[in-house]
Design goal:
By secondary structure, the chain is an alpha+beta fold. The protein contains two helices and nine strands; from the N terminus they run ααβββββββββ. It has one domain: Metal Binding Protein, Guanine Nucleotide Exchange Factor, Chain A.
Amino acid sequence: MTFEIEKSDEQWREELSSDRYAVLRKAATEAPFSGSLLHVDADGVFSCGACHQVLFTSAQKFDSGCGWPSFDACEPGTIVERVDTSLFRERTEILCSQCSGHLGHVFNDGPTQSGLRYCVNSLAIDFDKTN
């Protein structure tokens, strides 16, 4: 896969905090129920913590009870999926389509009509409140 924004590992280390680097560039996962954006219910947009591409809106967010911010859809063309077998089972990893930042995973157990649950690390995204 090729991405619009390609940077060296050293460049990402300089631009991101160590926690964000671990999640966005090394696919780490923050502890459940620890993320700062888990309970954000205000109107706004959620963007990639590395490149600032808008990924989700507050209208797409829901409380799944899983411990991470969850969304039932993403903005068109903003997410790339790939197979992840890192925990000895197959999951679908989600990446920012612009910079390849690791966001989390998507599952087919969402409660809305889409049937999807994008499970996203708070450290991977920023929230911008709309006025």
